Amino acid sequence: MENKTNAISGFQKYLTLWTLLCMIAGILIGRFIPALPAFLNRFEYARVSVPMAVLIWLMIYPMMMKVDFQAIRNVGKNPKGLFVTWITNWMVKPFTMYAIANLFFFTIFKAFITPELATEYLAGAVLLGAAPCTAMVFVWSALTDGNPAYTVVQVATNDLIILVAFVPIVKFLLGVSNVFVPWDTLILSVALFVVVPLTGGMLTRSVVIKNRGQAYFENVFLHKFDNITTIGLLLTLIMIFSFQGGVILENPLHIILIAIPLILQTFLIFAVAYTACRILKLPYNIAAPAGMIGASNFFELAVAVAVALFGTTSPAALATTVGVLTEVPVMLLLVGIANRTRDWFQ
Description:
- This protein is an all-alpha fold.
- It has one domain (about 1-345): Up-down Bundle (Na+/H+ antiporter like fold).
- It has 16 helices and two strands.
- A two-stranded antiparallel sheet has the order 1-2.
- Helix 3 (about 15-30) packs across helix 12, helix 8 (about 135-145) packs across helix 9 and helix 9 runs parallel beside helix 14.
């Protein structure tokens, strides 16, 4: 129990609380100091916010260092769990997210949301659905007694698939939604927010381990970046909500309306992956992380791409930020469900 408690930091455990506080701070800044977000919004290149890009690099780069891509050599060992992860993340999750979000935003909630807003909220949901989780999976795996070595392989292969699958899936689903997305902006977003930090993280990991050893890297070096990641995330949230303050104050109910389909999608995807592992007679310590990696989202990437494609003041960016708001409490609930059902597995 002590190990489980230590597996998730106070910041991670109360991420929803910090997000709410950042939302309040951002709204207050947008309301009483509007010149600040207006000034920051001037720094753009190819529709990418430069201040936002810097903050997101601070979040993503330390995460990428944690992924051991040498573990991919073990892909051939017990591949059924990997197939469940790949199929759930890339052939099921993006499309069920689109279907659920479309149903709620355009049909169930049509009395509360205009078609224009519904389209952008759907775009934000699609970006979340096409970006399965990476770094936080290690936390959920630890809390469910997952196989750490196998979880590393699941995350490493998933990160590589993002490089080739994220862009075409997003382009297709947003095209179906009648949302025009320039190829160059979408590809640039993935290059900036996946390829660059991924390459930097791999090189840093390799150099540090070669010079100082694995133990130093994992026990000392990585922890030097803990506060940087936290600061990057909190400042990013404040910045987004400072741009979104007017929208939120005019439509506070929309936060709840966006959260409902996102939460339902999270439970659905967990059930799909978890049940598939049970049918395939996989052990619990592989099944639990497989369910977690599909259920949770790489919300840092989704937020970054939403800002690059639609702008910091867009409803799409707001929708991806609501994903941050709901992530931890829902995932902790799923951790509890997994731990209580471990006897379902051999």
